[in-house]
Amino acid sequence: MVKKLTLQALEVLLKNRFKEGFLSLKDLPQPSTFKDMDKATERIVSAIKNREKITVIGDYDVDGVTSTTLMKLFFEEIEYPIEWIIPNRFTDGYGLSVNIIPRILGTDLAITVDNGISAVYAAKLCKEEGIDLIITDHHLLAPEVPEAYAIIDQKQEACEFPYSEVCGAQIAWYLIASLKNALNVKINMMEYMELVAIAIIADMMPLQHINRAMVIAGIQSLSKSTKPAIKAYFEHVQKTQLTSEDIAFFLAPILNSAGRMEDASFAVDFLSSTNIYDARVRLDRLIDFNTLRKATEQDITQKAMQQVDDGDKVIIVAGEEWHEGVVGIVAARVARAYEKPCIVLTQGDEGLLKGSGRSFGKCDLFGIVDGCREYLEKFGGHQAAIGLSLHINSLEAFRMQVQVNFSEGAYIKEIVDPDIVGDLHFSNISFDLTALVKKFEPYGQGNPRPKFISTNVEILQAESMGKEGEHLRFSFVQDGIVMQGVKFKSKEVFNAGQKVTLTYSINENHFRGNVNLQLMVDKVTV
Fold first, then answer.
1. What local confidence, expressed as pLDDT, does residue 212 receive?
2. Alpha-carbon distance 121 to 132, whole Å?
3. I need a labelling partner for 71 at 20 to 30 A (CA). Which of 27, 56, 191, 200 fits?
4. Tens digits of per-residue pLDDT, 51-71?
5. Are residues 184 and 262 in the same domain?
6. How many CB atoms lie within 10 A of CB 299?
7. 109 and 237 fall within a common domain
8. Which domain holds residue 196?
9. Contact 208, 446 (CB under 8 A)
């Protein structure tokens, strides 16, 4: 049963998400609270003074791309030449791997950003080749840790940095801050914060504690940015400022699409553009990648949906030559549609299936699949998302074992969406309510935008809108109070006069100088 909600109750509920209150940049811990930060800084300063060859190795997601760009921009600003590499998802695999070593031979100092903490064998090869290795990463440590000159990762036991949930770009930013102090150079750290804010949101870090402070500062700085890439993006979207949701749903997918469809280095080239003309051309290329990504994803999602067995507790689907770069997104879409965990596999060479899985609700998908390692060639991830590969001959045995593991785990499907904060009557929807909701922005992971539920609502009007009728526009009434609403990406059919229960968030719709409140409808239950 969902509780009736008042403004006062909502304020208490939202405040409880921030145990430390709202932090600001003055609350940021010092760089030296990271284990090995001072050691890494000294080694990099020494490399600069001795004109050693430095190579930065990143990753192909938004966090890895922004981390690499931060390091590239910093070394450009201090006029020190470096090499940088972003591994290709399809030919190199993830992070600092054996495949990368031939490309960094002759390097004196290699620095990883947003990867490296699991690169045990590649680190050994670096040592054999006389390459000093500094690992900066934010992921969990495996039982065996790579041997490196320095490791900066807040999840190390001996690390005194007080926040465990930070992303790779934040650690890169801290390394730059430490280098700035050690080299005594004048650089504006706020200009680097712009990219950090994008990474925090895209990598789904909780928007609490210092993450919230850094995102707010970064978003404010974005609106005044002198970076050609940011100016070109603002031009493209015809906006003067961005929200956390703008970054999560529009900018991040564009940056991600290069790595998903071809090569993430295109995204680094875009973010580090030195003039607006290059930035525009590079942005167009990324938008083309994203358009292709959306079409490919839509096509595979339809094919995957046709394979779903309703009897499965964990959905497992496989196809021939489905694009490896989008199977994770497809798994997330199918999981949401069926409200079940989903694994999507694609068959490539020699009968090997590769794929990704996404969980649903509180189900520990990593734990379920971890009990099936005998069937797997490769496996990794965390509770909500996994990556795996297996031979096609093992598929049926794997499928059966996954269903058994799910049943034995006694996973209960969540009946109520955890983001719903209470039952709201239309009479309580007001500009006071939206003003209160705004106080707790930015919303995202760890601080979800509050969703409301309203019961015994009547549909007055429901019609399709959009170029291909892919969205719905509504008029609703509850006890004589009328509200407008929209539901995106839905071709469901509703009729006037139907009594329904709504799940939604509330939006201020600015149009031609007028401001109206509208419901952003998540679910309509007849």
1. 97
2. 14
3. 27
4. 999 999 999 999 999 999 999
5. yes
6. 14
7. yes
8. 34-284
9. yes
Is-contact 341 311, C-beta < 8 A? Answer: no
d(CA 90, CA 125): 22
pLDDT for 2 equals 63
- For 16, other C-beta atoms within 10 Å of its C-beta total 8
Identify whether the C-beta of residue 44 lies closer than 8 Å to the C-beta of residue 179. yes
Task: Examine residue 226 and state whether it is found in any structural domain, yes or no.
Answer: yes
**Residue where the block lists tokens 């993450």:** 211
Judge if 257 and 353 occupy the same domain: no
- Whether 432 and 370 map to the same domain: the answer is no
Q: Is the pLDDT of residue 145 over 70?
A: yes
Question: Is 16 a member of any domain?
Answer: no
Radius of gyration for the alpha carbons in the chain, expressed in angstroms and rounded: 24
Whether residues 428 and 400 fall in one domain: no
Q: What's the pLDDT tens digit per position in 442-494? A: 999 899 999 999 999 999 999 998 888 889 999 999 999 999 999 988 888 99
Q: In the structure, what pLDDT confidence band is assigned to residue 1 with cuts at 50, 70 and 90?
A: low
pLDDT at 228: 98
* Domain end marker among 351, 376, 408: 408
- Residue 234: both structure tokens together: 């603002």
Question: Which residue's entry shows tokens 């940021």?
Answer: 28
Residues 346 and 440 in one domain: no
Select from 351, 386, 408 the last residue of a domain. Answer: 408
The first and second tokens of residue 507, run together, are: 């939006």
Tell me which residue of 155, 172, 147, 142 sits closest to 56, measured CA to CA.
172
Residue 116 burial (C-beta neighbours within 10 Å; 0-12, 13-18, 19+): buried
Interstrand relation of 514-525 and 481-487 (parallel, antiparallel or unpaired): parallel
Q: Give me 384's structure tokens.
A: 């909500």
**Each residue's pLDDT tens digit, 346-399:** 997 778 999 999 998 888 898 899 899 999 998 887 778 898 999 999 999 999
Q: Is residue 26 part of a domain?
A: no
Q: Which residues contact 201 (CB under 8 A, 6 or more apart)?
A: 207, 215, 244, 247, 248, 252, 442, 444
Contact 34, 171 (CB under 8 A): yes
The per-residue pLDDT for 14 is 95
pLDDT at residue 279 above 90?
yes
Same domain, 478 and 374: no
SS3 230: helix
Domain count, the chain: 3
Q: Is the dihedral of CA 208, 210, 214, 217 positive or negative?
A: positive
Among the listed residues 89, 139, 98, the one whose alpha carbon sits nearest the alpha carbon of residue 118: 139
**Considering the domain boundaries, does residue 318 fall inside one?**
yes
Nearest to 104 by CA among 119, 85, 120: 85
Say yes or no: 115 and 249 in one domain: yes
Task: Compute the residue count for the chain.
Answer: 526
Task: Looking at 155-208, list the stretches that DSSP marks H as alpha helix, in order from N- to C-terminal side.
Answer: 168-183, 189-202
